[in-house]
TrEMBL record:
<feature type="domain" description="HTH merR-type">
    <location>
        <begin position="17"/>
        <end position="85"/>
    </location>
</feature>
<dbReference type="InterPro" id="IPR000551">
    <property type="entry name" value="MerR-type_HTH_dom"/>
</dbReference>
<dbReference type="InterPro" id="IPR009061">
    <property type="entry name" value="DNA-bd_dom_put_sf"/>
</dbReference>
<keyword id="KW-0238">DNA-binding</keyword>
<dbReference type="Pfam" id="PF13411">
    <property type="entry name" value="MerR_1"/>
</dbReference>
<dbReference type="InterPro" id="IPR047057">
    <property type="entry name" value="MerR_fam"/>
</dbReference>
<protein>
    <submittedName>
        <fullName>MerR family transcriptional regulator</fullName>
    </submittedName>
</protein>
Amino acid sequence: MTRPDTGDRFDDDDYPAYTVGSAAEMIGATPAFLRALGQAQLIEPRRSEGGHRRYSRYQLRLAARARDLVDEGTSIEAACRIIVLEDQLEEAQRINEELRATDPPTE
């Protein structure tokens, strides 16, 4: 029996490895909370062949951040917006650093 090459999956933050139950347990939330994040369009889990939700490590980090914000009293909708803006800012800063590294200022 030949096994598929799974080496890349262990390091892939986007690989949908976690069921809704295990994902909820990992972040200390309920499956309903994860579904609410999906309805708020923060995360969109992939579906298994059987139609079950599967979450990636990246999605779980976002969900854990949302849980922290909600635990502090922020609404789910506001928490999701904050996380999207934080993610956009992080990406803009990364791009800015790359551009500075490839095109140093001239004097």
